[in-house]
Amino acid sequence: MPIIRVALNVPVDTLFDYQAEDVSKDDIGLRACVPFGKKQVTGIILAVSDETQIPIEKLKSAHGIFREIKPLPAALLDLFHFCSQYYHHPLGMVILNGLPVKLRNNKPVNLKRKPAQYQYSLTSSGKNVAVTQIPARNRVARRLLGEFQQTETLTSLQIKHISPRAEKLLQDWIQLDWITAKFCSTAAVARVAEIPVLTAEQEVAVNAITADAKQFNTWLLHGVTGSGKTEVYLRIIESVLVQGRQALVLIPEISLTPQLEGVFRARFSTVPLVSLHSGLNDTERLTGWLQAQRGEAKIILGTRLAVFTPISDLGVIIVDEEQDSSFKQQDGLRYSARDLAIFRARQSAIPVILGSATPSLESYYNALTGRYRHVRLLSRAVQNATLPLIQCIDTRINKTQEGLSGPLIQALDRCLQKKHQSLIFINRRGYAPVLLCKSCGWTAPCQRCSSRLVVHLRDKKLCCHHCGHQELFPRACPQCGNQDIAPFGQGTQRVEETLTADFPTARILRIDRDSTRRKHAWQEILHAVHTHQVDILIGTQLLAKGHDFPNLSLVGILNADGALYSTDFRASERLFAQLMQVAGRAGRANVAGHVLIQTEFPDHPLYQALQRHDYDALAQTLLAERKMAGFPPYVYQALLRAEAHHIKTVLDFLAQAAQLAHPPQTVELFDPVPAHMTRLKGLERAHLLVQSSSRKHLHAFLTGWYAKITTLPSQKVRWVLDVDPLEF
Ligand code: ADP
Ligand code: ZN
Ligand code: ZN
After folding, report:
1. Each residue of 296-353: pLDDT tens digit?
2. How far, in Å, from the CA of 480 to the mean position of ligand 2?
3. Where are the alpha helices (DSSP H) in 91-224?
4. Residue 584 CA: which ligand 1 atom is closest?
5. All domains in the chain, ordered by first residue
6. Closest residue (by CA) to atom 2 of ligand 1?
């Protein structure tokens, strides 16, 4: 009996062999349900063979093979293989992580096809079925077969008209080979009326990319905020659609999906689009996934996981806001969807476009060195819209009250009088970042994390933003007994309270993770902003991304200084990108924009570059620093991360791993150190950094090292390799 070799979702980098009847090489990529220990699990068949290393008496038989769909076409399998090798993660876990939940279950999937899009034709065996073979009580079935025999083909719509119940028969009849189904392509690209004329810069970008659309290239579409990158995407997607091919668009956050989805649906109203994001239920995700695989969905829009969608005829990949760290998964398989998108494009010989106003230094460096092709949009697309005026308010001179300085309050007042919208950006939700005892300096800590609890005054609670732990306010300081404990510092809720008191007639809306938890909250907020039912917005980074608020003229930025002197070498890069993005919300249409940054360090090079909108100046400075210090993009890094209940266990484990390493001269191995946030969710964490100026050498080393680490006793430790880490 033949052997199938199955990839399973288990943390061992091997395939598992089972006996199976009636299998051939064509079955590679199918799902198989197999016994594993005492359980039944479902995995993917990756090889079919006559031989196995397993003694025959130990070899078990597969319970069954699901043939209704093939989840893994060859191209996707290559992507998973690459992902497993590059990130040093077991192949089975990589594959199962990338599949919709419904395909990981031990059950066949129920393939509901969307009606309206199909055309059904009678087969020759269907022609030979006599209507009288169907029992007379099945009136609908008799009528449907009669109709088929008269006209031979019916669309789903016609079938619906015959009877709403007729549809149910179709799948059975397909199984019986009475009829076949074909997807009717309605993907004609209808042009809608209000398509803007491209600006000269956009035209250069679109022409350059479409002229070279038949081969792999990584394009860095580097355009200032409001330069119309979306329009460039739309034109490129259009050129792909008219060839009948599909486009994959990756975006960072779920909150961006409805807006971009709306833009795409409006432009390509007749083109089937699926949107894959974490807000979908399992059935919706599977349906979208299948539509992409069958080539029915022409535009696939999604967050990082969508990079693993099977797409039969991919023509372009777009990664919007490529610098965004949410493209990197921060637990389990720590992959970068942006980097995998580039691999995928290379494999499919198509262009991939990385869009950003503030590219990651890695991408910028690749563009400078010619590895990526660089196209720039230097001015805003809307006529007369200019970049906002950015200024600093020196809070050493202009003292703040409740976090707000006089000049900012005055600017808000002027903005209100002009009936323009304004936005206060503060990247801290809750009421105040700490609860402080004024007599002894005690602050409320999280017991499970190395962090302080955030004050949520409205709920009278202290919350940990890392582990979700909540507790009630203490009545008195647990350290000295003093009752004079109070919230210290500002969060979005406190700013909201202050502004409500300062501007009692203004309509104020707070936008943070607490206020957007409800389903549809985002749509409602965006609607309120667009229809000018809001005067002042208060928001965290959630607001900074991608949203286009035409009537917004003032942006105030609070408490940004913290990141200037962070120990994280990427902190400046991130702060700059974030502030540039927030600043970019102002003055996008006919309203001139003004950005005020409250800071104690107005002369800092980062703020200086920001005021001049000079990404290149800051990027050059940061690159020079990185080169001196030996940081990415000048070196490639990997972290061995480990966590356990006690830091000593973790550090001992890492020390043992270091002993096994024997790195070559070109690979540098550092000492184990506790993570920046040592305790998280009750576990203590540490890591060990390895780096090299040669990616090849680093990876050759990692492969050997990984195998050795797996031999270490590690019952008490959870460990993972993080390749190209973003967090330390
Ligand atoms: P970005 O993503 O680069 O920040 P957007 O794509 O959001 O910029 O575009 C900013 C604004 O410019 C949008 O309101 C968009 O409709 C408008 N826009 C884009 N291209 C053009 C154009 N060629 N002519 C006029 N308006 C445009
Ligand atoms: Zn105290
Ligand atoms: Zn916590």
Report:
1. 899 999 999 999 999 999 999 999 999 999 999 998 999 999 999 999 999 999 999 9
2. 4
3. 91-98, 101-104, 124-127, 139-151, 156-162, 167-175, 200-211
4. 4
5. 3-103 (3.40.1440.60), 118-183 (no CATH), 200-377 (3.40.50.300), 389-432+489-624 (3.40.50.300), 636-723 (3.30.70.600)
6. 229
